[in-house]
Design a protein that fits this description.
three-stranded parallel sheet; Rossmann fold; about 160 residues; about 50% helix; mainly alpha
Length: about 160
């Protein structure tokens, strides 16, 4: 499924794709590159039966949560009953594709990416035009990245 989705992105031609298995640069610190990629991308996570047990899959989810990276979770597990998980998927929109429609994944991912960009832009506009308290309570913002941007002046 990952390669089929990568191919669909390439066919569209106007999106950039990155698949860690193929695209991590040789000779570099791949952990740092992976973290940097997670922190600056729109993630599509393919959750299979083994996903939650893989160290680097879990790490990507934790980085995505820490950096408030826009993300989409593709529920690719085939069973109907699954044990409770411990990963923070609660803020991430989820899609199932029992019919194999990969465009449904991309549409959801693009919607999530646009939602994030609009939110970030609105926060930047608020900082320029609206007075806000010197000490901003970060609980007002659903994404921590936007909160870090907004709280920067108060920390100085």
């Amino acid at each position: 499924m990952a390669y089929a989705l990568k191919h669909q992105i390439e066919v569209l031609g106007w999106l950039e794709d990155f698949y860690d298995v193929d695209d991590l640069p040789a000779g570099r610190n791949w952990q740092r590159e992976l973290e940097r990629g997670v922190g600056s991308s729109l993630l599509i996570m393919l959750r299979t039966e083994v996903y939650d047990g893989r160290h680097w899959c879990k790490q990507e989810v934790l980085w995505a949560d820490e950096y408030a990276t826009p993300a989409v979770l593709v529920e690719a597990r085939t069973g109907l009953n699954h044990p409770a998980g411990s990963l923070p998927f609660d803020r991430i929109p989820t899609v199932r594709i029992p019919d194999g429609n990969l465009l449904r994944i991309l549409f959801l991912a693009l919607r999530e990416g646009l939602r994030f960009l609009l939110f970030s832009r609105r926060v930047e506009e608020m900082k320029k035009t609206e007075p806000y308290p010197r000490r901003l309570n970060c609980g007002y913002f659903p994404f921590r990245r936007a909160c870090r941007l907004s709280c920067a002046p108060a920390a100085r």
